[in-house]
């Protein structure tokens, strides 16, 4: 008989992390081998423990859940990634699929559904919450990588001059990229463009 499903849990909200760990520990075929409060801790824990599944949130300090999935995918890691998040956004789901994520569920799913998804992911299946499946066919992200990079800077409060210096671009070039992004998103200004892109999961 094979051993339990070895899991690393990554979640920056301590109460949620503790609840997930306690609930999974009640399952006879699941072993939580490590927990992490941010993405960098999670990455280190995966490298150390080589779990079967990394169960992670998306938005955390350090690496995001999507960053973790992409990096592990690039390394050819055997650990499969199951994202459990509050964000029912088509942009996030698309990026998760592109990063090789094996499962994508919402935090308000019943614990039985989460455990079932964990077992299916461990068995090699891909699991997406039914209410999100349609989102995979939503409008694709219209932004280029450079436009996304600049909008992330805007979202962090950086002005055009600061962005230009950080990214080694001319200020006029920064304005042109941001104008293009604003037009694609039908935004009135750079801040609204950054807000819309983040809400849609494109940053």
From TrEMBL:
<dbReference type="InterPro" id="IPR011006">
    <property type="entry name" value="CheY-like_superfamily"/>
</dbReference>
<dbReference type="GO" id="GO:0006355">
    <property type="term" value="P:regulation of DNA-templated transcription"/>
</dbReference>
<feature type="domain" description="HTH luxR-type">
    <location>
        <begin position="136"/>
        <end position="201"/>
    </location>
</feature>
<dbReference type="InterPro" id="IPR039420">
    <property type="entry name" value="WalR-like"/>
</dbReference>
<dbReference type="Pfam" id="PF00072">
    <property type="entry name" value="Response_reg"/>
</dbReference>
<dbReference type="GO" id="GO:0003677">
    <property type="term" value="F:DNA binding"/>
</dbReference>
<keyword id="KW-0597">Phosphoprotein</keyword>
<keyword id="KW-0238">DNA-binding</keyword>
<feature type="domain" description="Response regulatory">
    <location>
        <begin position="6"/>
        <end position="122"/>
    </location>
</feature>
<dbReference type="InterPro" id="IPR000792">
    <property type="entry name" value="Tscrpt_reg_LuxR_C"/>
</dbReference>
<dbReference type="GO" id="GO:0000160">
    <property type="term" value="P:phosphorelay signal transduction system"/>
</dbReference>
<dbReference type="InterPro" id="IPR016032">
    <property type="entry name" value="Sig_transdc_resp-reg_C-effctor"/>
</dbReference>
<feature type="modified residue" description="4-aspartylphosphate">
    <location>
        <position position="57"/>
    </location>
</feature>
<dbReference type="InterPro" id="IPR001789">
    <property type="entry name" value="Sig_transdc_resp-reg_receiver"/>
</dbReference>
<protein>
    <submittedName>
        <fullName>Two component transcriptional regulator, LuxR family</fullName>
    </submittedName>
</protein>
<dbReference type="Pfam" id="PF00196">
    <property type="entry name" value="GerE"/>
</dbReference>
